[in-house]
Amino acid sequence: MIEVLTHQLYSIGGPVLIALLVVSLLATATAVYKLLSFGRLGVGRHRVAEAVLKRWAEGDASGAYQQAAADKAALSRVVAEAITGVWRWPDDKERAREMATGTALSLLDMMSRHVRVLETSVQAAPMLGLLGTVLGMIAAFNEMSQSGGAVDPTELAGGIWIALSTTAIGLTIAIPFYFFTSWIEGRIDRERAAMDGAILTIVYGPGLDLANQARGETTQFAQAQPVPLRR
């Protein structure tokens, strides 16, 4: 296989092979970057946010916010922003929702960054491979025409086989990154759905009303306690 690549590199398909190498390196670097970025953003880490939503539903608004603010995962940051918006504008739910949605969109944009590079690599690699095959076939039949048709079939088959190698290389590059890109987009879609659900739960759920009710009952209970007499 190395001999085939070496022969192809110094043939008419050499520039195509170099372009395939560049596409492969670029896609690999982008894939590594996306994995590191997802880890930094906490994509898929929903355990803390789910616990925060449970506390919010139980009326523990203060505890829910503190727990969400302490976590750096993307979903927890959106939840903390939604709680802040509800506290800041308790009578304007749409404004609170817009505030949380803005944070969610910003985080989703960071998750989607450079995904287009992977998509372009998946589309470009097979096309470059096909171009290399076409150029190789042209060279092979050009040699056959120059020799007046007296060509050894074995040599012709070998030339065609070398020409087809670029298509195989292009598909080898495209297929793994196609599945990787699909996985990345699926993770982003699941994160988007989780953020939408969390925002709706915080903004339109009964959590804040329960917290205010509990706070009011505690205040009334404290006011109703008898004051001890001094002796």
Key descriptive features of the protein:
231 residues, 0% strand, single chain, mainly alpha, rod-shaped, disordered C terminus, 9 helices
Structure explained in plain terms:
With 231 residues, the chain is mainly α. It has one domain. The chain is built from 9 helices and no strands. Helix 6 runs antiparallel to helix 8. The chain starts with a helix and ends in a 7-residue tail after the last helix. The relative contact order is 0.15.
What's this model, at a glance?
With 231 residues, this protein is mostly helical.
Strand and helix map with partners:
Blueprint: H1 2-9, H2 14-41, H3 47-57, H4 61-70, H5 74-88, H6 93-112, H7 115-146, H8 153-204, H9 207-224
Helix pairs in contact: 1-8, 2-7, 2-8, 3-4, 4-5, 5-6, 5-8, 6-8, 7-8
Classify the secondary structure makeup into a structural class: mainly alpha
Tally of distinct domains: 1
Q: Give, in order, the helices and strands.
A: HHHHHHHHH
Largest sheet: none
Q: Return residue spans where pLDDT drops below 50 for at least 5 consecutive residues.
A: 214-231
Proportion of residues in extended strands: under 5%
Rg (CA only): 31 Å
Mean residue pLDDT: 82
Helix content: over 70%
- The outline comes out as rod-shaped
Q: Alpha-carbon distance between the termini?
A: 101 Å
**Strand segment tally:** 0
Number of helices: 9
